[in-house]
Each structure stands twice: as C-alpha cells, then as structure tokens.
Amino acid sequence: MARLHLFDLDGTLLHGTSAPLEISRQLGLEAQTLVLDQSISAGLIGPPEYAAQVYDLWTQLTEEHVTAAFEGAPWLARIREVWAEIRNMGEYCAVVSLSPSFFVERLTGWGAHAAYGSRFPALPFAEPVDPAGVLSAAAKVLIADRLCAQFGLTRDDCVAYGDSLSDKDLFATVPVSVAVNADDHLSGLATHSYVGKDLWDAYELVRGAC
C-alpha cells in the first residue's frame, strides 16, 4: 500500500528558522520577524495575526527577495533525494505549511507532489492579505484529507514530519509521525524522533515501515 508523506516547512525542512524569517532577512527585518516567530511558536498569537503582521513588514518585498531567501535558506540535506526515493517507491510527498504559498510552492520544483501554504497577494503587494486564506494547524489535517482523496489513500496511510505546535493536530491524526528537531509541543505525540540536519536520516526511521 502506498503512503503519503506530509512535511512541515518551518523548523522541519528549514533548520532552525522559518520562511518568513529568511524572507525578512533579505529586507533587514529579521529581528522584528524573530519576535513574531517566537510569539506564534508560544501560542501567543494565531496564524491570521502573524500573517497580517509579516504582511505589514513586507511593503518592499519583491520576487527577487523571495528567490534570494529560498536559495540562501538553511535547508536540511538530501530533501530532493528523499522525495525522489518516495516517488520511486510509488508513494507520495507533500509540503503543508503556514508560511506564504509564494515560498512554499517552489518546493514542487524539488519533487513534492503538492505544496500548500497560506495565500498572500501577488508580489509586490497591492492588496491586503485575506485571513480566510491563512492556514492553521487544523487546516493541515483538512489538506491531508484532500490529498488522501486525490491519491486514493486514507489517514492510516499517512506519515507526518514536523517540529512544533502547528503540527500537533496532524500528529494526533496520523498513525506514523517523525518529530524533526522538535520542541516540547510534540512530546509524546510522535512515533519517531530525529535531531540533525539530514532529511534522509529522518526518513530512514520510517522508510519501509507500514
């Protein structure tokens, strides 16, 4: 039976950072964004508030900034190799993140079958961010269900990889999960745990497991 591997982005595929932080670094606004990252990680603000506040910071943001952030980010090693192996096994892989879709969707070019993020306006911004398009922890489960229906699978066929509070709902829903460089929000929820900088080593924990 095929499986669907669901990957978080911030703190999971990106080591020790988030997509918004890497984007803000290009604008010299990393300190302000780090405060927001700490607030959402602690549950002090929710995804809509976070999205609205980073949107307000990014008045000068361009596609060139996003490209530089994506190419210069501290990605885990061997992401593309893991996704190629998953595809070769006849399985599926997707990225589901609360970060902006204009960053997350670039990962389909690395081999992900699908990539979902919070919807932001086109760059450069000429209209406000719509809170209805901002993803949440609960939305990750809904997207997983949608992908399962697309691929002819069920929740029992899913493997989740994540690191923080935004992954808690998904980890509680699927039978197999890997906490990757995770914080204490996932303590006791993950079936496997990995600390390091190589996605292949995290994948090896569940490779071939049913």
Description:
This protein is an alpha/beta fold and 210 residues long. The chain has a domain at 4-14 and 76-204: Rossmann fold (3-Layer(aba) Sandwich), CATH 3.40.50. It has helices at residues 9-13, 19-25, 30-41, 47-57, 63-72, 79-88, 101-104, 137-151, 168-171, 199-204, and strands spanning 4-7, 92-100, 114-118, 158-162, 176-180, 192-194. Helices cover 40% and strands 15% of the residues. It is globular. 40% of the residues are buried. It starts with a strand and ends in a 6-residue tail after the last helix.
Topology at a glance:
Layout: E1 4-7, H1 9-13, H2 19-25, H3 30-41, H4 47-57, H5 63-72, H6 79-88, E2 92-100, H7 101-104, E3 114-118, H8 137-151, E4 158-162, H9 168-171, E5 176-180, E6 192-194, H10 199-204
Parallel strand pairs: 1-2, 1-4, 2-3, 4-5, 5-6
Q: Given the structure, what is the number of helices?
A: 10
Main sheet: strand order: 3-2-1-4-5-6
Report the β-strand fraction as a percent range.
Answer: 5-15%
User: What is the arithmetic mean of pLDDT?
Assistant: 96
Helical content stands at 40-55%
Q: Describe the largest sheet.
A: 6 strands, parallel
Query: What's the CATH superfamily of the domain at 4-14 and 76-204, by name?
Result: HAD superfamily/HAD-like
Which regions are unreliable across 5 or more consecutive residues at pLDDT < 50?
A: none
Q: Write down how many β-strands occur, each being a DSSP E stretch of 2 or more residues.
A: 6
Global shape: globular
Compute the gyration radius: what is it?
16 Å
Based on the structure given, which CATH architecture of the domain at 4-14 and 76-204 is correct?
3-Layer(aba) Sandwich
CATH fold category name of the domain at 4-14 and 76-204: Rossmann fold
CATH class of the domain at 4-14 and 76-204: Alpha Beta
Which secondary-structure class do the elements indicate?
A: alpha/beta
Order of helices and strands: EHHHHHHEHEHEHEEH
Distance between the termini: 8 Å
